Amino acid sequence: MSGDLKQFYDAVVIGGGPAGLTAGIYLARACFRVLIVEKEKFGGQITLTAEVVNYPGIKSVSGEELTGAMQKQAENFGAEFMLAEVTGIEDGGDCYSVSTNKGKLKCFGVLIATGAHPRKIGFKGEDEFRGHGVAYCATCDGEFFTGKDVFVVGGGFAAAEESIFLTKYAAHVTILIRGNDFKCAKSVADEVRENKKITVLTNSEIEEVSGDTVLRKIVYRNNKTNELTEKKYENDTFGVFVFAGYEPSTAFVSKVVELNDRGYIVTDAKQKTSKDGIYAAGDVCIKDLRQVVTATGDGALAATELEKYCTEMQKKTGIVPDRPKRKTAESEAAHGRPAAESAGKTGASGSSESSGNQKLFTDEMIAQLSMVFERMENPLVLKMYLDDRDVSRELKQYMSELASLTDKLTVQTASDNEEIKLPCVKVLKTDGTKTGMAFHGVPGGHEFNSFILGLYNMSGKGQSLDDSVKKRIKAIDKDVHMDIFVSLTCTMCPDLVTAAQKIASQNTRITTDVYDLAHFPEIKDKYNIMGVPCYVINGKEALFGKKTIEELLDLIEKE
């Protein structure tokens, strides 16, 4: 076997959710070189869950916190990480070649832990009104339906749980269940039925939604009587939240391992697939219970089996990949993640809790932020554009306290507001040159992470980029402006913001403005935004959904 052995791994784990991260912990701790490849965001679908209360030993934790701890644990044992899309797996005899959009990876064994993604139902109007009334994340989009009727489609745990959550905002929630009853625990179903703001309709299926710029009509059918119900909202709108389960992300291995008729991977009791050396774990597998705890169990079992397989292959080939290097706390700031995540969970989220003399950052957060600031190559200026509202005072306190933590940041207050949406903080170089990064509102909540990463990226080289991606960004020879509209409770928004700002950091002709829609209802009305993340390129149509750097470049290059 030829090739650079420095790029050879014992195992490549495809998927960075709970199953993949757990496998990474076990393999790296056992001194096997393991690379975890994730397409979008490490943590998986559970990062969208605000509160996990059924993970053993932990009373309550957010999905993002839980998987963030898993990733740090894997990293500390020496697991390696890559953001890339896997496009295929080839059998090379004594090793496998894993193809990605960033090149090929060689390894002895593979673990497929790509999970599943929300299933679309396919009713008429579903795609057309996504972001304009049709949504898939209650945490992200629930607040856009304050005081309005909401329909929830689905009868599983997610539908039940999210329906209860939506009562915080909605005037009323109607659940449409295709079957005779809920498919979740009776205790959860009972809680739903006892809620006076929720109506449960069984044997009911959504047929279509329609409207103009927003939803105006919904039609659903009783699948026992075939009776159609039509509701119109001529002077108002409503929302439809779809929680109809998930479908496995297995298309790229459909010709590599055996799948069942629904696309799930067939495995034996030890997580082995139909192919020697390839294992599967988590929601891609055929299983009755899809929970974080079962995913981690799958990942641990698959990893221990891979340990045996990799040991055999080392003996057979004489190839022993480099041993993983254990890492300590100082490495955690290399990507800016831990500091940003911890700070993002504070009360410094643009709310009244952050006013007054209360410190925004704990000693632990300050220590973590300091590690990020130390890696900033050049100082930056935070130029604030303020009015006399409370939110401007919060932004001023927020930026002032952040700048007090480092000599890499200084604060200025503009005397001329330049006819921009207030309040706003623009990030400048010390000579006054604009970096292409601006935030309107207060970058707290989930946006604190992306704001810190933005500063890190704007100060110099920042986060690493594949050479081919750099070339694509540098080749853009036209002015491009991206307006990005977010909610501070949205767990998907930071990915889009970070991707856009990273692109802007590499090309002075590209600029980004991020808006917390809570403070700019006129923008929400202008584009009829009923869901986030939302973005507009060069003032054109509103687009929805998180995007990677490569996906944003695809859109920019078409402009």
Tell the overall outline: globular
Total count of strands: 25
- Tell me what the CATH architecture of the largest domain is: 3-Layer(aba) Sandwich
Question: In the residues, how many domains can be counted?
Answer: 3
What can be said about the biggest beta sheet? 8 strands, mixed
Provide the CATH topology of the largest domain: Glutaredoxin
Radius of gyration: 24 Å
Percent strand equals 15-25%
Helix count? 14
Average pLDDT, to the nearest integer?
Answer: 91
Instruction: State the name of the first-level CATH class of the largest domain.
Output: Alpha Beta
Intertermini distance: 45 Å
Query: How helix-rich are the residues, as a percent range?
Result: 25-40%
